[in-house]
Amino acid sequence: QEFNTVELNFSYYRIPTLSQCRQMLEKSGHRVEFVIKAFKGLTHEITDQSIPEILPQFKDPIAPFSQDNKLGAILLQFPQSFHYTPESRVYLESLIREFSPMPVCVEFRQREWLRDSVYTTLKELNAGFVCVDEPPLRGLLPPVVVATSNIGYIRFHGRNRSKWYTGDSKERYDYLY
Fold first, then answer.
1. Which of 163, 149, 164 is nearest to 75 (CA)?
2. pLDDT tens, position by position, 105-162
3. Per-residue pLDDT tens for 59-72?
């Protein structure tokens, strides 16, 4: 079996280089669409410099995916600590606008974001809402399916309750559907 889409996770930990991005396109034979997870400095370690300095450092090397029409989306995965506040809303909207015209999908880990006003904003910005499947633990999101763009995105994190907060990432996501 072959998949026509791949999600890059390493880009969360380090910004890919232009050379890496070009090599991935070449090695894929230009047949694969890429979803690129945003660098943690844009989603988990937000500072006043995230948009003016880090965003261009992240956007520039991934441009070949967009130029080759092989960019499925930029995945903005926000942590549970990213609360629904006026400041966070402004940041989110600004970040999505700055990525335009690149497609963006947003994954929240904080229940406070599950509200109609957020879905409306995502629709207005043509940003996809990511449905997550994860353990039914207090504070985590239930699977919510909402269409806010032409991209449907479901992330299967698994339902390993016993290792969600205590295990390493290999154990946490060890779940057979």
1. 149
2. 999 999 999 999 999 999 999 999 999 999 988 888 899 999 999 999 999 989 988 8
3. 999 999 999 999 99
Can you say how many angstroms the Cα of residue 165 is from the centroid of all Cα atoms in its chain? Answer: 21
Cα 127 to Cα 73: distance, rounded to the nearest angstrom = 9
Supply the CATH classification number for the domain 5-172. Answer: 3.20.20.410
Asked whether the whole model's pTM tops 0.90, one would answer: yes
Nearest residue to 92 (alpha-carbon basis) of 80, 102, 105: 105
CA-based torsion, 54, 78, 112, 97: positive or negative? positive
- What residue spans define the domains of the chain? 5-172
Report which of 104, 89, 107 is spatially closest to residue 143, judged by C-alpha positions. 107
C-alpha closest to that of 34 among 54, 4, 77, 1: 4
Q: What's the confidence (pLDDT) of residue 165?
A: 85
CA distance 16 to 58: 7
